[in-house]
User: Fold Exocyst subunit Exo70 family protein from Acer negundo.
Amino acid sequence: MGAPQAVEALRERAIFVRESLAKSQNITDSMVTILGSFDHRLSALETAMRPTQIRTHSVRKAHENIDKSLKSAEVILAQFDLTRKAEAKILRGPHEDLESYLEAIDQLRSNVQFFSSNKGFKSSDGVLNHANNLLAKAISKLEDEFRQLLTNYSKPVEPDLLFDCLPNSLRPSSSPGQQGESHSKAEQQKRLEAAIYTPPTLIPPRVLPLLHDLAQQMAQAGHQQQLFRIYRDIRASVLEQSLRKLGVERLSKDDVQKMPWEVLEAKIGNWIHHMRIAAKLLIAGEKKICDQILDGVSSLRDQCFAEVTANSVSVLLSFGEAIAKSKRSPEKLFVLLDMYEIMRELQSEIQFLFESKACIEMRESALSLTKRLAQTAQETFGDFEEAVEKDATKTAVFDGTVHPLTSYVINYVKFLFDYQTTLKQLFQEFDDGDPDAQLATVTTRIMQALQNNLDGKSKQYKDPALTQLFLMNNIHYIVRSVRRSEAKDLLGDDWVQIHRRIVQQHANQYKRVSWAKILQCLTVPGAAPGSGAGADATSNVSRAAIKEKFKTFNSQFEELHQRQSQWTVPDSELRESLRLAVAEVLLPAFRSFTRRFGPMIENGKNPQKYIRYSAEDLERMLNEFFEGKTWNEQKR
Assistant:
């Protein structure tokens, strides 16, 4: 194809495109015109419909408001209905159905809260006044019900029932063996620590929830003080009655001071049982029910428990204080230790029971009594040591046996060792030193004080031989008692050996003082030495001198036999040992003398007048020494 043709074709296409674009523009303009008219019409329609929309919205809003009003009316009517039902229950009183009555009070309280927050309601003030008056009457009836219920189920606990709650070993009906007399104090203490106590039922468990609910309602109504007074007065009185039935009574220092010791000792024993029963059973039980009934009323609970128990605790502790302040005497030491022991035993219970701030006075009073008992016991200990050394009793021990003071002191020390655990605790109340060393020191001082006193008493004897026999008997008794007791471990083997030597020294002194003179009768100054009978043995001695020797020996031996048969050596081993020691000196000397000089007498007139005894006779008569026989017994 030629170039002209191509140009022509291109031109025709350009004309076609231009015409097409012109048509498209016309269509677009038409559409814009049509759409513009639609927008105008829609605006007019919207303007025309706006009033209708406003009326429709108002109708819908009105319907919503009507629904809300109906619902509010339903709620108010429901509250009126609930108030009417609660009123009916409250007017019937709590006796028929206490739980329903309590529910009615809760409902009434809820109604009051509702109307208080909806005061826009026209009759709300009148309804509120009526509901509050009704609520006040309900709470008043509730107080009466609480008082009545608590009174009806609060009865003093009989002693027999309390005894049944104790471990078997602590019951009064137990035999002495059951109560632990066959056991050491340490074993008794372990048994007590492991003992199980069964708390008594002070208020039936089924009643406790009701009392708790009543207490809660009273507290919520602001009647805490009424609740406090009712609970305190009823439970305090019952606790005091329970203790009185046991025999607990308030005694002053003067009352205690006037009592005979036997009566007072029995009362102290009872007090120890009363303290244990009170702390572990009665007061523990009071705390338990107080915590249950007043649970949730913490502002009252601790103060209530404190005032319920205050007077009873005061009565119990006042007796302990009266004993601790009374005139000290040695026999009181053991009961003081018993009292101190029970206070120590109950220390953990006391700390637990009276842990609150409201109970601080009772807790401190108990602690103060423990300290005072410890102090009085320690002072009594010191008094005893001094009394032993200064004891001036004129109790005569004519036969040289063990003095009552010795047996008293030794028994006292034995009892002390039964309390050694308690004593060590007592020492630590005042001193941080080694309690074992302190106990050893105290025991040593008491033993020394006793020996000093015995030395003084021994000087009352006119016969120096009896002085030595008396000291020998008493020191031997002390040593033997120590060796057989726990005191040996504390005083030590050295102490025992030293005092055994002292016993032997007194025995030797007795022999020397008592028998030296009579042995002189069996020696002849100037006689030729030798053991055979013959002229060489007697050549320098006259018959008259030998007669006098035999005569003097007979007289002195008979006097010794008469006197010393009335003396006593109570320990059989010591007695035989002393007789043997005398026989070992006397009999060989007598046999030797008789063998040497007897023939001089036997060949003369009336030899039996001078040689009155054989060695066997003397041995038999020596076996009658130290038997404590009376003169009449000797003559039989």
About this structure: The mean pLDDT is 83. The longest helix spans residues 3-92. Residues 72 and 296 are 35 Å apart (CA to CA).
